[in-house]
Amino acid sequence: MKSFKILPILGLSFGLLFSSSASAAIKPVERYDISDVGPNHRFYDSIERFVYSDIVDGYVESETIEEDGEIYDYSYISIRPEEKINRAQFTKILVSALSLKTGTNVKEFPDVKASKWYYEPVRIASSHGIVAGGSNGKFNPDAHITRDQMAAMIYRAFSNTVAFKAPTKTFKDVPPTNFAYEAIVKSAANGIIQGYGDTFKPHDLATRGQAIAMIDRALHQEAGSEADQTAIKTIVNRNVQEEMRLMKEQNTAGLKALYQDTATGYYLSESLDTVELPGDIEDMGGTFTIEQIGTHEINPVTVNKRFAKVRMDNLKYKVSFSSPDLSFSMNVDASGTAYLKKGMDGKWKIYNLVLDNEDIQDDWEAEISAAANAS
User: Fold this and answer.
1) What is the pLDDT of residue 201?
2) Cα–chain-centroid distance for residue 82?
3) Residue 357 pLDDT > 90, yes or no?
4) Radius of gyration of the chain (CA)
């Protein structure tokens, strides 16, 4: 579910009155608009998490639309979850999900050239013993990956951070002689892989959706630390409190710096896209004020090694807008859930923030419309 917070809400709602100035973002917010996977898809949560946290980029699609005589170019992405995934693509996603750096004992493959986009991810994966190549010494980057190969790579990647259980289930089509036997039965015991009843179909080609879902399940079995709990509370609280102060000061540069330091992925792109809004309101001859009501609480819900979920409760504001043509004031309950990812530098950042009140944008637009009609 896409995030909503004070500035993004205002940006969408005040669009009824004027267009805000977009700020340059690391990636345009449209590049997080998933076109081919809806909430009812079995892997939707995992796919959304990987897209919003920049683990996967998807395929950029574009189209041209005409509205009121104007031509607009619009871009979005597709994930193609049922499409087969090759070994290079899977390796890149796995390395990105784990935020891995190059370790020792790098292995070079004759068919992985330095000019290729997958060169660095394959080198990183080899340095951690995740990939070893085939009997001929090649990596075969363009070959579609099989389900047993994928299970083996996930098992190797998480062997030091996930407590794998003793096997409780075997598959009739995965004999002990299969090179990935241990990886498959232990990953099945942890629910990382699920199979098809009493079969696993080890030689079937894996899909992009399966790859994302399996890696995501493993990521959420890595244990977080007490230090992680403290860090995520600090980041979320800093984002809330400093955003409030900087918005009141109309300190655009400070807001940009804050978002760069506390946000990533979708939430960073969305926040930078609306960062100029308070100044835009002033330029239009209006005034904008915001005050927090009461004291909020920040409480971790789940904390893993690389992903975390945090509750923000009793986060309420009074927001007022005044201009020569329109004035209104209303209270906003911005309580909700923040989702964070730890990056390669070890810093936690918010990649999505979802308010409990999913209709808050509609409430804003209704308030603006009512005020406009009364003026």
Assistant:
1) 97
2) 20
3) no
4) 24
DSSP annotation of 21: P
CB burial of residue 41 (10 Å; 0-12, 13-18, 19+)? middle
pLDDT of 297-335, one tens digit each? 999 999 999 999 999 999 998 888 787 777 778 888 989
Read off the pTM: 0.88
What one-letter code names the amino acid at 351?
Y
Residue-level pLDDT at 139 = 96
CB proximity list for 212: less than 8 A, separation 6 or greater: 43, 46, 47, 50, 56, 79, 81, 93
* Euclidean distance between CA atoms 124 and 128, whole angstroms: 7
Q: Two tokens at 45?
A: 């949560």
Of 90-94, 242-246, 325-329, the range with the highest mean pLDDT is 90-94
Could you please report the per-residue DSSP string of 153-203?
HHHHHHTTTS-PPPP----TT--TTSTTHHHHHHHHHTTS---BTTB--TT
Question: What is the rounded CA–CA span in Å between residue 239 and residue 267?
Answer: 12
Q: Which two tokens stand for residue 374?
A: 């009364």
Buried b (16+ CB within 10 A) or exposed e, 210-236: bbbbbbbbbbbbbebeeebeebbbebb
- Partners of 63 in beta bridges: 74
